[in-house]
Amino acid sequence: MVRAMWSAASGMQAQQLQIDTIANNLANVNTNGFKRSRAEFQDLLYETVNAPGSPSSATGTTAGIQLGLGVRPGSVRKLYSQGDLKNTENPLDLVVQGKGFFKVLQPDGTTAYTRDGAFTTNRDGQVVTSQGHLLEPSITLPPDTLSLTVGADGTVSVTQPGQTQAIELGQIELAQFVNPSGLMSIGNNLALPSNASGDAIDGTPGLDGLGTLGQGFLEISNVNIVTELVDMIAAQRAYELNSRAVRASDEMMQQVNNLVR
Questions:
Q1: Which of 23, 80, 177, 183 is least surrounded, with the fewest CB atoms within 10 Å of its CB?
Q2: CA 141 to CA 125: how far, in whole Å?
Q3: What burial letters (b/e) apply to 89-108, b meaning 16+ CB within 10 Å?
C-alpha cells in the first residue's frame, strides 16, 4: 500500500510537469518561430520479487514478479517542425523554409540562434533583432535605401537614388545542428548550442540541407491548439486517477489500522 501511494504520487508529479509544458506551449501560440515542447517520461526502478525465468515448483519457469515504483520525467523535447507562414509585407521580415537558424550576436560576443526572422534596423542602419542583437554576418543598409531585396539564397541587395541596378550588400548565412532538440533555450526566442546539440554547421541557404529564405513573411509558432487542449485533458484525467490511487491506498491503510483482534 505504501508502494502504491509513492508510485501514484510520482504520477501526479509527472502530470504536473505535463501541464506546465502544455501551458508554456499555449502561452507562446503567437510567438514568432516558437517550437512546441513535449514532455517525455520513463518508468522508475522495479522491485523484483521473482525474476523472470527463475525456477518454479509448478511450471519450471515463470514470467516473474516485478513491481514498478512509479514514473519520472525523462526530458522536455523541442519539436522543430515547420510552423505556418504569415505574410507581413515587411521587407525585413524573413522566414526559413526548411532547416536552419538565423545567427545573431549577443552583447557578450557569443553567437545565439533563432528561428524568429522579425528583423529591423538600428540607428546605424545595421540589421538587428527586436532586442537589438546584430544579425551575423552583419548587414548594414545605406541611409538612402529605396528598396531592399533578400534572395532565397540569402543575398541582400538594395537600390539607391540615381542607380539603375541593385547593389549587393552581403549574404545572410544560416546554421544547422545535428540534434536541434539539444539546443538550450535562453528566452527572447534565442537558443545556444550544447553538448547534446553539437556545434553549429554554418552554410548558405538552400545548400547542404539548409532551408531557403522568404522575404516579407514570418514563421509563427508550430503549436496546435487543439492538440494541446486534448493533451491537457488527458493529463488532467491522469492526475485525477493518480490522486484516487493515493486516496485508495490511504483508505486501505486506515482499514488495517482499525483492525481489532
A1: 23
A2: 5
A3: eeebbbbbbebbbbbbbbee
Give the chain's length.
261
Q: Enter the pTM of the model.
A: 0.87
Residue 59: band (very low, low, confident or very high) from pLDDT cuts 50, 70, 90: low
Cβ–Cβ under 8 Å, residues 126 and 105 = no
Whether residue 76 contacts residue 21, with contact meaning beta carbons closer than 8 Å, is answered with yes
Strand order, beta sheet including 147-150: 147-150, 155-159, 167-171
Give the residue among 91, 215, 86 at the shortest CA–CA distance from 153: 215
Rounded Cα–Cα distance for residues 235 and 73 (Å): 14
pLDDT band at 46 (very low <50, low <70, confident <90, very high): confident
Query: pLDDT over 90 for what percent of the chain?
Result: 79
CA distances from 48 to 5, 18, 60, 63, 130 (A): 18, 29, 18, 11, 56
C-alpha cell at 163: 542607380
106-145 residue pLDDT tens: 999 999 999 999 999 999 999 999 999 999 999 999 999 9
As given in the structure block, the three cell numbers for residue 3 are 508502494
Which grid coordinates belong to 180?
A: 536541434
Domain ranges in the chain are 2-80+223-257, 85-219
Structure confidence at residue 49 as a pLDDT band (50, 70, 90): confident
Cα distance between the two ends of the chain: 21
- The answer to whether the beta carbons of residues 216 and 87 sit under 8 Å apart is yes
